[in-house]
Description:
Layout: E1 51-61, E2 67-72, E3 75-77, E4 81-85, H1 92-99, E5 107-112, E6 115-116, H2 121-124, E7 128-131, H3 143-152, H4 162-172, H5 188-198, E8 206-210, H6 218-233, E9 237-242, H7 245-249, E10 254-259, E11 262-268, H8 269-273, E12 279-283, H9 287-296, E13 303-305, E14 308-312, H10 318-327, E15 334-336, H11 342-350
Parallel strand pairs: 4-9, 4-10, 7-8, 8-9
Antiparallel strand pairs: 1-2, 1-3, 1-5, 5-6, 10-11, 12-14, 12-15, 13-14
Helix pairs in contact: 3-4
The chain binds adenosine-5'-triphosphate (ATP) and magnesium ion.
Amino acid sequence: xxxxxxxxxxxxxxxxxxxxxxxxxxxxxxxxxxxxxxxxxxxxxxxxxxxxxxxxxxxxxxxxxxxxxxxxxxxxxxxxxxxxxxxxxxxxxxxxxxxxxxxxxxxxxxxxxxxxxxxxxxxxxxxxxxxxxxxxxxxxxxxxxxxxxxxxxxxxxxxxxxxxxxxxxxxxxxxxxxxxxxxxxxxxxxxxxxxxxxxxxxxxxxxxxxxxxxxxxxxxxxxxxxxxxxxxxxxxxxxxxxxxxxxxxxxxxxxxxxxxxxxxxxxxxxxxxxxxxxxxxxxxxxxxxxxxxxxxxxxxxxxxxxxxxxxxxxxxxxxxxxxxxxxxxxxxxxxxxxxxxxxxxxxxxxxxxxxxx
Length: 357
Ligand SMILES: Nc1ncnc2c1ncn2[C@@H]1O[C@H](COP(=O)(O)OP(=O)(O)OP(=O)(O)O)[C@@H](O)[C@H]1O
Ligand SMILES: [Mg+2]
């Protein structure tokens, strides 16, 4: 397979399909993207890429022996909102920490904004805002003062514009009115929004948020969603992790699904929705005969219930099933291939226990 010229050409696939479409030294460094050079980010390095994040075989095995991330090939198109989904313990945070250079991968490679890692970290990081493991805020300082402290720690930030930038970041997360309130007096939602504001202290090409809705009530979750939309509307790529499908489903254009360290699906939300019909359901006055024929066709999971029989379609086309039933003498009153809901699709991909609430 040749390398993709644009993210749309990537043949997103399910588990097992390896991302030969994402060679770092080609797609990731390609300069076809519309990601413009930010005026703020001076310096010679101007790598850009069709992919905001691309990884190949990214793997982390902890000293305990645990394989937390196992050969993950990410392809995050520039300009998208990418939902990085998976149950607790599936390896999302570990992946993000590797992406950001906080821990060293055991094997594999990756690039951010076209900069190969880890060599390009210094060039990439000023363009990347991130929220991982909540920043340490000082309870007795106001929101604005906390941001000023964090900004001061960023050696590449422009000191002259600090006040403007803090106001702009607070404004974007809806905390301008609470700028001078002590952090300890913030609600949980306000605290989380301040955390997101830290990733917005400068204009970013990529924002990586690890579970930004953690601990928020439905209202807070809605607010974070709206914020993600706002960030994305400026052309910033957003990579957001969650163990709750419902939290990110409404804002994502693309999704990656992790299960026990492996990326088991990657593609657009549409592709996930349009997954193959899982089962075929037949209505007939002769369910027993129908069940026998379906079994004879080699279909798995044959179930009978009243006048209905269903089975896993596998590779068989529904029209073929219908034909074989009719030829076998089964009067077919109705045949359906009910689509899996997005939620079902996730459970199917990640196994039971995935929190879809
Ligand atoms: N520093 C570490 N040392 C050993 N094992 C670790 C370490 N960090 C994470 N793990 C293990 O790696 C696995 C993946 O953890 P990780 O935090 O990446 O999952 P996650 O998908 O972010 O989960 P959650 O949704 O709960 O945040 C877990 O089994 C975890 O126990
Ligand atoms: Mg995590």
